[in-house]
Inverse folding.
């Protein structure tokens, strides 16, 4: 049993190696006789067995009609090879985009499946090895966008395995499949790990200072104008409407820009530090606080907003990352 | 129930049920009646499961059902040997599997078993009709297999049916090739043969009324094609059985004949070779007689008979069969009185060839034992006839004169009818002197009684007379209604001579078939033959029968010998190299044509003028760096470009509108306008001299 397994594993490994050499990565691919493999399925072997029994029956009874039926099923089997192949051939696969995710999560890969011609394609299962498959039918439409999910195994540009594309259509007795590499890559952020304290950088010169109240710029509200207040701040519009004399109130906050800093996480390994930073990025970005990121050789100015967050996360994902 | 239940594609259940029911239908006649109840029950249950009303059968349910089936099978058949019990068992298994179907594997098994059931029907019937039914079954079952692999097939049921039909059509030429070239290796081991409930054809005894019943049973007894000379219709007396024993009501073969038949049936004999066959026949009609007959005669008549199964041993031939052969497993032997017997009951269509000498002399030296046997009459039956026979014979000058007087009696006073009155104890007396209405068996029986009573050896011969000529394929069809009984009388120096008293009463019966004379009587309402007076229907009937005949001749009878003959004929001598070339050549051609067809169906659809024009627009914009994104609609694209290059906005929007109207609103594409606008766009773009 174990020998059989080993043998099977061996064969599989060799097959994969051969496939790797043969099917080169490409973003857009068309399935054809160069990259499709075809073989009877288990049901097909059963079918052949039944056909053999029918042949025996016909031979023993010397009954030409039963023999004819046996030959018919044999012919059907051969014809099925062609039908299965042509159902797959000409199918175009194009990797459209992937959605970034965190390590351990399911990354989403969007693929455009299309074909030309009026015949259409039917019952083609597309999947990643581990995930559940999507069944594609192109009968009335010529294209269809599908989403596949694949577990992100590491940080950085994660390249999932090859895509499994398989069809037993029409009779289920022939299995036609391919393992194209659509050059898919998914940006994978570090896995967020909750840390004890926010790894902010300690005061460097110009940060965290209190600003002069008079130099404050953020409009806060109105307050009754009292003598001695700066006449610059009088709300003339409101005064002109006869609402009384008010003074615009400006406040100055303490420096809110936070620098998430690599160096604040002393004594930790690289990935652990990145995970902590990632956690805090997510945490801070849910507030209205501007934040920046400091990594060795990387610095992102404090800012807020979704785009900034993605920029920061990408920096974390790709930090010291190489193939 | 399993937690993770397999859900077959929505339509597949219906297709599976349709497929298996249809394939069981043709053999339903051979199956016990209770299987219909099981079928109904299972289908109902399965549909209720599908609708979510009922549960899958529990283990207890299944056990009970299996027990019911087993009990039923034993009740109906007693043993599992034989074809019918096997077929019933297979159908039971198929139905129970349908009920408990829970996985894809189960569904596949149902399809495969259905293929088997289709094959079974060919064991029971090899008519052309069976082929047509079989093809329909094959189509439906294959569609069921297809639908199992079509998770969303229920959206397009006709597509599934068409696709499987196309696949079957694609398979057809390949199948024909395989049929032609696959070597036939012949029976590997013996198999149970179908045992129809009823035997058909002439039975092994004759009582009044038997033949008129048989004439109404319908169907074809056999088809004959003559090579060379075709005898006249009046000469076509197909002899099957000779009856010598009479018990007052029933005629039966002599005990010696029966013994030879039972020896054939049950004896553990070595199959006689063709030489011993002749010797075994020499018991009564001595070989010498036979040889002298052969010397005496001119050219024999050669003919081939395709015989429908009768479940009986006797075969039919014209007197006097001198040579016979068959390519089948069943052997033919010569029995008493120059009859032909098969060495096992004929259970499927059977083809044999015979040479007969129509002019013959046989049994000139009648042994004492035989003479006594053919004079035997039951005591105290038909006293009146015996008395008159003796009286007439005494007054007649010789046997011939006596025979003539009896035949004249028939001719003068008797009526030939398909519905003779019922007879009492003294059948011959009542018939001859009271009712005077009868069918062939009445005439034959009474004639032989009259002969024997007068001391002339005589016997009844049962078989068929005549046949319907089919000019399309040049053969005769002998129907069940052609069943006939006549007599043979032994005369000094002449041996056995045929006399047909029916011909004395109704000469047209011998010249024409009963089907032509009284079709309404012998043909059922559903038979085309009943309406043969309409020439169109009669033509149709002949066409169909000729087709059936051709089918049997060319396809069903295509055995190993025919195959090698055909190949040798085509290839001018078969060599392995030639065979390989033929297989590769024809197989390759078939597959190439199929590939071309499939490619042609899946070819990219031609790009319309509209799209070509729009692609031109896209190329122009692409030069400026504007590329339409995947999935971006033309209007979105136009909007995006216009924002960047406001100068071309109007023209671009106009072009886009022209395209969209033609493409999506089925308006005519104004190519001229489009081309003009395209020129303007180019100019404007040049002036703007921008890029994305």
């Amino acid at each position: 049993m174990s020998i059989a397994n080993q043998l099977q594993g061996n064969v599989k490994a060799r097959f994969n190696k051969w496939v790797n050499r043969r099917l080169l990565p490409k973003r857009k691919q068309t399935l054809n006789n160069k990259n499709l493999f075809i073989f009877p399925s288990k049901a097909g072997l059963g079918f052949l067995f039944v056909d053999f029994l029918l042949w025996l029956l016909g031979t023993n009874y010397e009954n030409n009609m039963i023999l004819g039926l046996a030959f018919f099923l044999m012919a059907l089997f051969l014809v099925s090879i062609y039908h299965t192949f042509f159902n797959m051939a000409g199918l175009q696969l194009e990797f459209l985009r992937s959605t970034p995710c965190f390590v351990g999560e399911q990354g989403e890969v969007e693929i455009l499946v299309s074909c030309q011609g009026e015949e259409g394609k039917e019952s083609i299962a597309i999947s990643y090895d581990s995930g559940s498959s999507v069944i594609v039918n192109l009968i009335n439409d010529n294209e269809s966008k599908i989403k596949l999910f694949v577990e992100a195994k590491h940080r950085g540009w994660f390249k999932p395995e090859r895509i499994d594309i398989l069809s037993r259509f029409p009779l289920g007795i022939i299995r036609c499949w391919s393992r194209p590499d659509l050059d898919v890559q998914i940006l994978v952020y570090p896995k967020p790990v909750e840390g004890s304290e926010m790894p902010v950088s300690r005061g460097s010169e110009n940060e965290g200072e209190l600003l002069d109240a008079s130099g404050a710029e953020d409009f806060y509200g109105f307050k009754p104008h009292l003598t001695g207040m700066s006449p610059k701040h009088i709300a003339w519009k409101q005064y002109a409407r006869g609402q009384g004399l008010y003074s615009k109130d400006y406040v100055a906050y303490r420096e809110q820009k936070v620098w998430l800093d690599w160096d604040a996480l002393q004594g930790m390994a690289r990935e652990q530090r990145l995970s902590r930073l990632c956690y805090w990025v997510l945490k801070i970005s849910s507030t209205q606080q501007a934040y920046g990121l400091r990594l060795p050789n990387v610095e992102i100015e404090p800012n807020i907003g979704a785009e900034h967050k993605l920029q920061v996360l990408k920096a974390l994902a790709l930090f010291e990352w190489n193939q | 129930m399993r937690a993770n239940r397999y859900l077959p594609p929505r339509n597949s259940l219906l297709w599976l049920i349709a497929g298996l029911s249809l394939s069981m239908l043709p053999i339903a006649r051979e199956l016990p009646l209770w299987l219909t109840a099981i079928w109904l029950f299972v289908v109902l249950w399965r549909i209720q499961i599908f609708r979510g009303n009922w549960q899958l059968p529990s283990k207890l349910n299944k056990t009970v059902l299996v027990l019911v089936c087993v009990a039923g099978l034993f009740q109906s058949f007693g043993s599992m040997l034989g074809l019918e019990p096997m077929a019933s068992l297979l159908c039971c298994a198929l139905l129970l599997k349908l009920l408990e179907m829970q996985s894809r594997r189960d569904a596949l098994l149902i399809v495969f078993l259905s293929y088997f059931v289709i094959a079974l029907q060919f064991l029971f019937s090899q008519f052309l009709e069976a082929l047509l039914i079989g093809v329909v079954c094959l189509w439906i079952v294959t569609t069921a297999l297809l639908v199992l692999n079509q998770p969303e097939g229920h959206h397009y049921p006709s597509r599934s049916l068409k696709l499987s039909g196309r696949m079957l059509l694609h398979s057809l030429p390949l199948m024909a090739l395989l049929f032609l070239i696959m070597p036939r290796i012949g029976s590997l081991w013996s198999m149970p043969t179908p045992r129809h409930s009823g035997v058909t054809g002439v039975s092994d005894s004759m009582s009044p009324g038997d033949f008129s019943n048989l004439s109404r049973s319908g169907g074809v007894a056999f088809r004959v094609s003559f090579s060379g000379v075709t005898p006249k219709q009046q000469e076509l007396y197909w002899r099957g059985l000779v009856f010598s024993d009479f018990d007052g009501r029933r005629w039966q073969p002599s005990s010696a004949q029966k013994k030879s038949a039972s020896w054939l049936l049950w004896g553990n004999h070595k199959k006689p070779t063709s030489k011993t066959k002749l010797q075994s026949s020499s018991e009564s009609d001595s070989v010498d007689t036979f040889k002298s007959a052969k010397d005496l005669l001119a050219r024999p008549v050669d003919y081939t008979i395709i015989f429908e199964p009768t479940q009986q041993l006797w075969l039919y031939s014209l007197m006097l069969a001198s040579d016979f052969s068959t390519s089948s497993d069943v052997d033919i032997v010569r029995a008493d009185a120059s009859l032909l017997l098969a060495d096992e009951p004929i259970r499927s269509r059977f083809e044999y060839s015979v040479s007969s000498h129509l002019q013959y002399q046989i049994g000139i030296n009648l042994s004492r034992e035989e003479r006594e046997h053919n004079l035997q009459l039951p005591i105290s039956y038909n006293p009146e006839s015996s008395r008159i026979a003796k009286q007439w014979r005494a007054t007649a000058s010789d046997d011939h004169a006596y025979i003539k007087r009896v035949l004249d009696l028939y001719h003068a006073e008797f009526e030939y009818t398909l519905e003779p009155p019922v007879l009492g104890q003294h059948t011959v007396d009542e018939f001859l002197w009271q009712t005077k209405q009868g069918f062939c068996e009445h005439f034959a029986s009474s004639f032989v009684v009259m002969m024997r009573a007068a001391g002339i050896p005589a016997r009844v011969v049962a078989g068929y007379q005549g046949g319907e000529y089919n000019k399309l394929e040049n053969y005769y069809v002998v129907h069940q209604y052609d069943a006939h009984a006549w007599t043979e009388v032994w005369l000094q120096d002449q041996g056995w001579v045929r006399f047909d008293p029916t011909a004395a009463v109704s000469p047209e019966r011998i010249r024409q078939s009963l089907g032509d004379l009284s079709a309404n009587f012998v043909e059922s309402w559903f038979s085309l033959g009943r309406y043969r007076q309409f020439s169109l229907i009669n033509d149709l009937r002949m066409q169909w029968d000729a087709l059936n005949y051709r089918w049997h001749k060319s396809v069903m009878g295509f055995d190993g010998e025919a195959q090698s003959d055909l190949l040798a004929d085509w290839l001018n001598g078969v060599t392995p190299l030639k065979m390989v070339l033929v297989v590769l050549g024809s197989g390759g051609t078939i597959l190439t044509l199929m590939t071309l067809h499939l490619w042609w169906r899946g070819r990219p659809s031609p790009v319309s003028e509209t799209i070509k024009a729009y692609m031109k627009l896209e190329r122009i914009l692409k030069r400026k760096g504007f590329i339409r994104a995947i999935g971006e609609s033309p209007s979105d694209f136009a909007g995006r470009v216009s924002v960047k290059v406001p100068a071309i906005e109007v023209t671009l929007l106009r072009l886009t509108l022209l395209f969209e109207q033609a493409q999506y609103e089925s308006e005519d594409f104004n190519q001229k306008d489009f081309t003009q606008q395209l020129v303007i766009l180019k100019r404007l773009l040049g002036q703007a001299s921008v890029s994305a």
User: Anything to note?
Assistant: The first helix of chain A runs from residue 2 to 22. Helices of chain A lie at 2-22, 42-61, 64-88, 236-240, 270-285, 306-318. Residues 203-213 of chain A have pLDDT under 50 and may be disordered.
